[in-house]
Amino acid sequence: MLGEGWADQNALDDMHASILQEVDEAVAWAEQSPLPDPAGLLDDVYESR
After folding, report:
1. Are 7 and 1 in contact, with CB atoms under 8 Å apart?
2. Nearest Cα to Cα of residue 2 among 11, 17, 20
3. CA separation for the pair 18, 32 (Å, rounded)
4. Rg for the chain, CA atoms, rounded
5. pLDDT number for residue 37
6. What is the pLDDT of residue 28?
7. What is the 3-state secondary structure (H, E, C) of 7-31?
8. How far apart are CA 2 and CA 36, in angstroms?
9. Which end of the chain is more exposed for a tag (fewer CB within 10 A), N or C?
10. How far, in Å, CA of 7 to CA of 10, rounded?
């Protein structure tokens, strides 16, 4: 991207920081979410032979 002139280093750094923030927020949300009910473990699981 740099070599083709599509973005400069500042733009890439901003994108990288934005991606890291989004991932961090998703991880925090997942860690704070309740675990799923084990009773639903096999819901919508099908086997075809």
Report:
1. yes
2. 11
3. 21
4. 20
5. 93
6. 98
7. CCHHHHHHHHHHHHHHHHHHHHHHH
8. 44
9. C
10. 8
Q: What whole-number distance in Å separates Cα of residue 8 and Cα of residue 35? A: 42
Q: What is the DSSP letter of 32?
A: H
Task: Report d(CA 47, CA 24) in Å as an integer.
Answer: 36
Query: Which residue carries 């733009």 as its tokens?
Result: 11
Half-sphere exposure of 34 (CA within 13 A, CB side): 3
pLDDT in tens, 1-49: 889 999 999 999 999 999 999 999 999 999 999 999 999 988 989 887 7
The pLDDT, as a whole number, for residue 25 is 98
Residue that has been written with the tokens 């400069």 in this structure: 8
Residue 44 backbone class (left: φ over 0; alpha: ψ -120 to 50; beta: rest): left
